[in-house]
Each structure stands twice: as C-alpha cells, then as structure tokens.
Amino acid sequence: MNMMNVGIFLKGLFTGLILQLAVGPVFFFIVNLTLQKSFLNGLAGVLAVTTVDYFYIALAILGVGKLLEKKKFKKIFGLFSSLILIVFGTIMINGIVGKDLSHLATVNSSSFVSSFTSVFLLTISSPMTIVFFTGLFSAKAIEYRYTKPELVIFGLSTGLATFLFMGTSVIVFSLVKEVVPLVIIQILNFIVGILLIGYGIIRIKSLLKISEHKD
C-alpha cells in the first residue's frame, strides 16, 4: 500500500471514528448484551454490526444505495425498521418484568449465535444506514476525487472504525460489569427497551406526518 492509499485509509478510519461518537440504539443494545450477558455476547453484537456496516458500505460503493433514496422505498423500509425497533424494545422490557435479580445473574446462557442474530436484524433493518453511506461516499468521491478502488480503501477503514470503537466499548464494559450492581443492569435493560420503543414510535410518526403533508 503506497503512501497515498495509507492517507485514504487513515481518512476513512478517522471519519468512521467520528461517526461512531453519535451513538444510537444499536450501541446501547450491545452494551446491554455485554453487561447483562457476557463479553462473548457483546463481541457477537460487534461482529454483527460490523458485518452489516460493511454490507451497506459495499452497496453504497456499488451505487445500490441510490435505490433506497427514492421516497417510496424510504417509507416502506422506514416503517419496517421502526416496527423492528418497537418489537425488540418490547421483548427486552417483557424479559425483566416479573423476574428477580437472581434470574438476571444466570442470563449468561444465551448463545453467541442468538446475540449475533439479534444485533444483525436490529442493524440491517435500518435503510437509513445505506442512504447515509451513499451520501458519505458520494461526497468524498467529489471532495477528494476518489476513484472506485480508492473508495474501497476508504470504505474498508470506515467499517474498521465500527469494529474498533464497538469492540473497545465491549472490553471496557465487560471489565467493569463485575462491580456494577445487578439492579443497575436491570434498570439499563429497561431504559434500552424504552429507548428502542420510543425511537421506533418517533420514526413512525415522522413518516406518517410526511405522508399527510404530501396528501
């Protein structure tokens, strides 16, 4: 890799790390997996969100993201992803209702695969991710006059930032989980559930409001 490509890689990594600072529901979901279950469950979540990010980055570079910029597709996928958020939030809240703290202490039995699948579905259900990446790569291609191979390098490092940021967060929270009271973990579980439901409802209302204005 020549110096120019190294510069492109570092720009992508820096851009990706900056983007990671805008934490969302998926970040809190993965933190919750780490605290409530185990380091491996959190790692499974990190691998899932990184996989989805790379998938969407690839589609964005190929130009497929332009399809989801169409209003009809944005509305359909927007409603679908919002419902997914609400379902996940409801499941999380129902999971702690009527269960005591001793049950919470033995929750580590959940598998690596189930954690990966949960985060994968939660992440991939948001079409705004590919729309965002499409806009980002289009802007960078214009700003720096990147060729497609150079965009691939930029995309690889941008996706790597997801793994590094999320992975570091999982390591940190797995180290402190032993000193975090179980009741705090239960409260966090409830808060994450509320956040997912609230975010889903807000997105649905926003989509419906847009449709009403157009009608």
State the main characteristics.
single chain; 215 residues; 9 helices
Describe the protein:
This protein has about 220 residues and is mainly alpha-helical. The chain has one domain (about 5-15, about 25-215). Helix content is about 80%, strand content about 0%. It is built from 9 helices and no strands. It has helices at about 5-20, 25-35, 40-60, 70-95, 100-105, 110-125, 130-145, 150-175, 180-215. Helix 2 runs antiparallel to helix 9 (about 180-215) and helix 3 (about 40-60) runs antiparallel to helix 8. The radius of gyration is 19 Å and the shape is globular. The model is unreliable at about 100-110 (pLDDT under 50).
Main β-sheet description: none
Number of helices: 9
Order of helices and strands: HHHHHHHHH
Mean pLDDT: 75
Beta-strand residue percentage: under 5%
- Cα-to-Cα separation, first versus last residue: 53 Å
Number of strands: 0
For the record, the count of structural domains works out to: 1
- What portion of residues is helical? over 70%
Q: What structural category do the secondary elements indicate? A: mainly alpha
Q: Write down the overall geometry.
A: globular
Q: What is the oligomeric state here?
A: single chain
Low-confidence stretches: 98-109
Please give the radius of gyration in angstroms.
19 Å
